[in-house]
């Protein structure tokens, strides 16, 4: 086993295993130590007197969280529901749709599988269907995305699901243009921003989608299980969570039913949500100033996004050069995750390789982990045999880690050529 490349000095703020080269921030995020400490502090307060905490404190804390988050994603706090994850956000919107037989929900193969599953479930029950816009990959530019969605809209399209940043292909999609042009055709949009806050600027007020859901546990770096669903005010009446609590039939004076129902959906550990403000503040101030941003929160976040974007592109270039491949998308469609198309084998070998068992998605990913101690996803898109590797760039990563990945990929692809 060769010695592993070092992460950046900022990795000391995280608890990541130093015996792994962690290049997959994108899948589940990773949370800095001080934010985990903040979550423990909240757990302590809750467990000291659980009944009083839930009855007297919980709603007020959720309001404070909402205020901090609303400043970060540019919206009114009252329009934000705090939920455990983006999968729940999409499932909640799906469950609230009043679909008729023959209606269509427009998505693309780049959408996250869990979200596709939720939409297919509700569509199937209503006699409606899920239709697909064909976004090419590799892709030349955002116009191709807009054209793909517009070509697939019909008079029966009721809703479009669009990722702000796609999961398998790591593309920043032109959501502003899509929301606008879909609305001009009478189609509402649900934006799946699972990766977006903390990776790219998000301004929900300007975007004007019907719904926007996103994770905070990915690029804001709050604890797992912290996310939000923003619902445009005209869609909030009668819009309900998947789980109704005791509060559901108890309207509260001066508080919308939307917040009353979403803020409490049964006994759970809400401390990951409580810790969102700390993550926003710590990353923006401490990490941002370590990157030279001068200690002001929003400037700090701009510095983080810029730094991660640049590191991601440098990492991509190192890998593309080593493998002799071309980038799959223009730089402007990349945030801080980037997917590359791996060199292909002949069809017979590719089929044999695809049949190998994997704990993850592809046995190449297992090999990178077992033989090189690199955590990075290798996957593809349904309906295509092309194989992708997707890198993430977070402040704890360093360019040497991508150089190491490039060498490991070249070595493993060479081994595959002999199989
Ligand atoms: C685009 C997209 N949507 C939804 C999700 C689901 O996120 P979660 O598992 O936190 O619900 C992911 C996770 O990677 C994602 O990338």
Instruction: Give start-end ranges of low-pLDDT stretches.
Output: none
Number of helices: 15
Please report the distance between the alpha carbons of the first and last residues: 22 Å
CATH C-level class of the largest domain: Alpha Beta
- Beta-strand residue percentage: 5-15%
Which small-molecule ligands are present, each listed once?
A: pyridoxal-5'-phosphate
Quickly give the CATH architecture of the largest domain.
Answer: 3-Layer(aba) Sandwich
Total number of domains: 2
Walk across the major sheet and give the strand order: 2-8-7-6-5-3-4
Looking at CATH, which topology of the largest domain would you report? Aspartate Aminotransferase, domain 2
Q: Decide which structural class fits the backbone.
A: alpha/beta
Average pLDDT, rounded to a whole number, is: 96
Q: Radius of gyration, rounded?
A: 22 Å
| Sheet of most strands | 7 strands, mixed
CATH homologous superfamily placement of the largest domain: Type I PLP-dependent aspartate aminotransferase-like (Major domain)
DSSP summary, beta strand count: 12
Task: Indicate the percent of residues in helices.
Answer: 40-55%
SSE order, as H and E?
EHHHEHEHEHEHEHEEHHHHEHHEEEH
Shape: globular
